[in-house]
Design brief:
Pfam families: CHAT. InterPro entries: CHAT_dom. With 204 residues, the protein is of the alpha/beta class. It has a single domain, classed as Rossmann fold (3-Layer(aba) Sandwich), CATH 3.40.50. It is built from eight helices and nine strands. The protein has a six-stranded mixed β-sheet, with helices on both faces. A hairpin with a 2-residue loop joins strand 5 and strand 6.
Length: 204
């Protein structure tokens, strides 16, 4: 199993172009995932997390996890993007990739990756749902901005649940149940519903 994790922790480009703040808890997020994962991880962070590096590795990864800023473009949905070290990975970039392996899971630990469009309630064109059409069997996204400190908490419980029992090579992961369990843990901690509600699962 090839696990792929991207944490573009250097925010020079993001600050200049988007006016966004840094996300310091992404470091904690990858630590939590590393503990839960059944094997070594391929991690791209800081200056390694370039658009080219991401796209080069994409086709060989069974799981990708992106902890970064995200933005939906309601005027041009194909420009909705995840922001890496040196620029955006737009939805159009994913659509150009072919021969994606399966099973495939994308966890988009970023803001607005499953944000609907108010004037098109029945036509949700956003990153999370669209990735299911370009080869991902399962996608986790967010309906609005999430609190930075919730990323590590959700990630820990999600991957603990996902990988439980996978010592058996014939076992299959259940990402929908894993997300349910992770959100339930966050909810039980007593946080506002605005913090546990945005996480959503697409696919199987």
């Amino acid at each position: 199993m090839h696990l792929q994790f991207y944490l573009p922790e250097s925010w020079q480009w993001v600050k200049q172009k988007l006016g966004q703040n840094s996300l310091p808890c992404t470091k904690d997020e990858i630590k939590e995932i590393s503990v839960a994962a059944p094997g070594p991880l391929k991690i791209l962070e800081d200056s390694e997390a370039t658009v080219k590096a991401f796209l080069d590795e994409l086709s060989s990864s069974h799981i990708i996890h992106l902890a970064c800023h995200g933005k939906q473009d309601p005027a041009d949905p194909l420009k909705s993007a995840l922001y890496l070290y040196n620029g955006p990975v737009e939805l159009s970039h994913f659509m150009q990739k072919q021969h994606l392996q399966s099973p495939r899971l994308a966890f988009l630990s970023a803001c607005e990756t499953a944000l609907g469009i108010q004037h098109l309630p029945n036509e949700s064109i956003h990153l999370a749902a669209s990735l299911t059409f370009v080869g991902f069997l399962s996608v986790v996204g967010t309906m609005w901005s999430i609190q930075d400190s919730d990323g590590p908490e959700i990630a820990r419980h999600f991957y603990e649940s996902l990988f439980e029992g996978l010592e058996n090579s014939h076992a299959e992961w259940d990402s929908a149940t894993a997300l349910h369990n992770a959100v339930q843990k966050l909810r039980e901690s007593g946080v506002s519903f605005m913090r546990w509600m945005p996480f959503i699962h697409f696919g199987i």
